[in-house]
Amino acid sequence: MHEILLLYVNTYVSRLPLVCLLFAIPALPAPKPDARLDPLLHGVENRYNHAQTLKLDFSQTYTAARRPTQVERGILYLRKPGKMRWDYDAPAGKVFLSDGKNTFLYTPDNKRLEKSKLKASEDLRAPLAFLLGKLNFWKEFREFSSQPDPSGSIWVTASPNSEDLAYSRVEFLIAPDYQIQRVKITGQDRSLLDFTFTNEQLNAPVSPQLFAFIPPPGTEIMDEDKP
User: Fold this and answer.
1) Which residues touch 118 (CB under 8 Å, ≥6 apart)?
2) 135 part of a folded domain
């Protein structure tokens, strides 16, 4: 995930610094996982490292102590390098976007656009940009383990190399064709963000114009770079 491993889940989701998975970040040396996982992880890397674009349907469930479970869904577009757009069907009109330099979160209920630097983003959706770029499990993770899923896919669990992050574990559900079907991210506060992906289209037609968001008239713009 050297160079890329790149939002608010909603307004109350904790901003965890997972953006470290998006870009080149010094990592502690880590041992390789069990050699039996090598073919599986290399297969995933090969699948996504050769993709220039990606389109898929997603659903996300956020669970935290003393908070109601939040379920959202929509369409995710990714384009190398470092661009992504989350178009939400539920809640309708919500958009999270990265143009490769900045992130933008638009919430239609309050007509607010929040802008921040991509490298400073602490949103939980950020690490999913690893689906495009130079994915390298061994540089980003350690303490790998695996277990079969009744569907025939394999769960791979890993801890991040860096101990300074606000999440402690990432779980990947990997299909026999090396497609990533689910990603579960566990925060240090024991919150859980669970993504399910379907209808994946590698190298789908994804226009660069998708990654330029023009806010509707009357939108309140909050720019973290400005006082």
Assistant:
1) 6, 19, 22, 82, 98, 100, 101, 102, 103, 126
2) yes
